[in-house]
Design goal:
Elements (H helix, E strand, L loop, with lengths): L1 E7 L1 H18 L5 E7 L3 H9 L5 E14 L6 E8 L8 E9 L3 H11 L5 E9 L12 E5 L6 E2 L15 E6 L4 H15 L1
Parallel strand pairs: 2-3, 2-5, 5-6, 6-7
Antiparallel strand pairs: 1-9, 3-4, 8-9
Helix pairs in contact: 1-2
Length: about 200
């Protein structure tokens, strides 16, 4: 059985998003910023972040899909990442926004692909950074919160099994175990019935 433990309340999230907005606005002062949000995890965070920016902004959304394929040369199975739509990045300041950065594989792939289109600069912003799960050498340029465990976090755009993204706070799912006494009491009742 799972229980939900609140780790960041709405007011704390709002403060961090405003602080990130100020920091990003300082870094890109006098310039236009193209903010690219990853669906589905990044939409709530991005909506609040762009409203906290004090500079001209263009917004875009992309969706990624990972598929199992086989290497045409060796026949070995591999995973391939696809995304749509392509972003016009030439000469632009790109900020890639996601709800959570875990392994970093998809983000690293997107940064490399966007960089091929010769942007002026590409940076990343994430609501939740989970470096314990990282599988590539990648650090976000901006993050609201960092989590030192691999707990499942939901709320504020992050979902689990497609649910809970509408929660206004961030919470982690905690496995709960029933006390040992209850189990032994049940066993004792069952033994009595057998007698």
């Amino acid at each position: 059985m799972n229980q939900l433990k609140v780790i960041h309340r709405p007011d704390a999230i709002a403060r961090r998003v405003r602080a990130l907005g100020r920091e990003i606005s300082r870094d890109f002062r006098g310039q236009t910023l193209d903010v690219v949000g990853l669906l589905d995890n990044g939409f709530v965070f991005m909506a609040d972040l762009v409203r906290a920016l004090d500079l001209p902004v263009r917004t875009h959304f992309i969706r990624t899909v990972t598929q199992d394929t086989s290497d045409p040369t060796t026949g070995k199975p591999r995973k391939e990442i696809f995304y749509t739509p392509e972003i016009e990045a030439a000469g632009r300041n790109i900020l890639l926004v996601d709800g959570v950065l875990r392994t970093g594989i998809t983000t690293d792939f997107l940064l490399r692909r966007i960089s091929l289109r010769r942007p002026r600069v590409v940076k990343t912003a994430v609501l939740l950074d989970k470096p314990v799960e990282r599988r590539v050498l990648l650090e976000p340029d901006y993050y609201a919160f960092r989590l030192a465990s691999n707990d499942i976090v939901i709320g504020y755009g992050l979902s689990w099994d497609g649910l809970h993204s509408n929660l206004p706070y961030l919470g982690k799912l905690v496995r709960t175990h029933r006390p040992a006494r209850r189990r032994s009491a049940r066993r004792q009742k069952a033994r009595r019935r057998r007698k």
